[in-house]
Automatic annotation (TrEMBL):
Organism superkingdom: Bacteria
Coiled-coil boundaries: none
Domain spans labelled Beta-lactamase-related: 177-468
Protein name in UniProt: Beta-lactamase-related domain-containing protein
Transmembrane segments: none
Pfam families in the record: Beta-lactamase
Lineage: Bacteria, Pseudomonadati, Bacteroidota, Flavobacteriia, Flavobacteriales
Length: 490
């Protein structure tokens, strides 16, 4: 195949004799995982998505780029050539993907203090056109020098070499996961991995609508994964002294359907977060289409979106502020969830939305919501939600006692299965692990978040289709931490 004469955006190294190189670090180390994520985000944003502001802020002022076919470039020529050759034609776009199994990392120290790292590996280059499979154009080796600047990593030197035509390789044009998505009529998969309390992997596979490639910052509707976000916002308010878990909600809100039933006086934030309100899941699912108590509040567990909405209205009335504003102040901003919203506000980029599909692969009409719901309809990216889970698994900046209460077995559901504050808790995993998890399901939406507090591992799965059983089985039994055990507990 004729090689494409573009500037292949790749990376790294300076003259070896000028560097003090330690031995390759373990792939389970924090530094390896950090650099693995850095590679993923840097190339997805700066190269594949052509986020030129991000690229400019993450390359050193004295960047040196060496390419075995296109020669040497300094920072200015590298940046300008990226704009000119890589980002000028979105209809026929060069794409870079890394062979994650090939990565090696070597730390750089100065008098015992880490100041950078060398990263080596293999990367693959493709041409992407709308409505077509990515076409492999070449494979090459790379070496990067990353420097640590104010807790951020910038690319200092780059080397891309040993380029080969795809005819000389056996790499598949379509990944196993993407083929699985196609076979099951699910266009897109978003996946985040948390290892030892850190977000180490963010990947999005497939398409938004069976045609347009899904970007790394694809926006998914996540259905009931809204609830853990709302629950933590509530716990933040409790931690700040703005709310008490046991205070009666009737002081701030009484649903009109309940005015003649004095049991509303028993409702508290605690009963809502543990799903013990006595409410149905949704009133529209009942014959009367009205909100009623189906049993005494506090008597037992029954999953209820109505309960979360009831609590939202009470909090908004008490504090005089909408939940969007409270979540932004107490959760989204501290966590860095800059691409998460409760509804289709003016910041929503519809061009990045993963449209939803039924089990036969038919497109489901997108319903846009214009007001917040504490139990459903959150719009977010897999990276933002990964940040959220990493934040939770590290204590969420809650006081220790409240954080422990969140993980406590507040209600028993069945053997080895409990509910805490906003999270289901599964026990009985190997090595003394227990899991905190939540799922989400709407037409054309299937989502899962799970974390293991003992090891601080976890993962997030977003899918924009209904026919998902085979995909979950593959991910859990072959790819994800303790996934086999979780699959057996289904």
């Amino acid at each position: 195949m004729k090689k494409i004469k573009t500037i292949i955006f790749a990376v790294v190294l300076t003259v070896y004799s000028t560097l003090q190189i330690n031995a390759q670090i373990d792939k389970n180390s924090d530094l390896f995982k950090t650099l693995k994520k850095q590679d993923s985000v840097f190339f997805e944003r700066g190269f594949n998505q052509c986020d030129l502001d991000y690229l400019e802020n993450h390359i050193a002022d004295d960047l040196k780029f060496y390419h075995d076919q296109s020669g040497f470039q300094d920072r200015n020529s590298f940046f300008n050539n990226t704009k000119k050759y890589i980002c000028s034609n979105p209809e026929k776009k060069p794409i870079r993907k890394v062979n994650a199994n090939s990565l090696e990392v070597f730390p750089l120290f100065n008098n015992g203090k880490l100041y950078g790292a060398i990263q080596k590996g293999e990367h693959h280059f493709y041409i992407r056109e709308n409505g077509k499979e990515d076409v492999l154009t070449s494979i090459a080796m790379f070496t990067h020098v990353w420097l640590l600047k104010s807790d951020d990593w910038v690319l200092s030197e780059a080397l891309s070499y040993d380029h080969k035509d795809p005819e000389t390789t056996s790499i598949d044009k379509v990944s196993e996961i993407e083929q699985l998505l196609k076979n099951n009529n699910v266009p897109a998969l978003g996946l985040s991995i948390i290892e030892n309390g850190k977000l180490t992997k963010v990947e999005v596979y497939g398409t938004l609508d069976k045609n347009q490639k899904a970007p790394y910052n694809t926006i998914f509707k996540v259905a009931s994964l809204t609830k853990p976000v709302f629950a933590l916002t509530v716990l933040k308010l409790v931690d700040k002294g703005l709310l008490d878990l046991q205070e009666p909600l009737y002081k701030y809100w009484i649903d009109p359907d309940l005015k003649e039933d004095n049991r509303y006086k028993k409702l508290t934030p605690y009963l809502v977060l543990t799903h013990q309100t006595g409410f149905p899941n949704w009133r529209y699912m009942t014959d009367s289409n009205k909100l009623t108590f189906q049993f005494e509040p506090g008597e037992k567990y029954q999953y209820s979106g109505e309960g979360f909405e009831y609590l939202r209205k009470a909090i908004e009335n008490k504090l005089g502020r909408p939940i969007e504003e409270l979540a932004q102040e107490f959760l989204f901003k501290p966590v860095g969830m800059n691409d998460t919203r409760f509804w289709w506000d003016v910041s929503m980029d519809e061009s990045r939305y993963a449209q939803n599909f039924d089990e036969n692969g038919n497109n489901i009409k997108t319903v846009k919501y214009y007001e917040a719901n504490a139990a459903a309809n959150l719009l977010t990216t897999v990276e933002d939600y990964g940040r959220f889970v990493a934040y939770v698994i590290n204590g969420a900046e809650l006081n220790k006692k409240l954080f422990q209460e969140m993980q406590k077995h507040q209600v028993k559901l069945r053997e080895n299965d409990f509910f805490g504050f906003g999270w289901e808790i599964l026990t009985g995993f190997s090595d003394g692990e227990f899991a905190m998890l939540h799922t989400g399901k709407d037409p054309g939406v299937s989502t899962l978040v799970i974390m293991f507090p003992q090891s601080k591992n976890g993962y997030i799965v977003f899918l924009n289709g209904d026919n998902v059983n085979n995909i979950y089985e593959y991910l859990l039994t072959q790819k994800l931490y303790l996934g086999n055990e979780l699959w057996d507990k289904r």
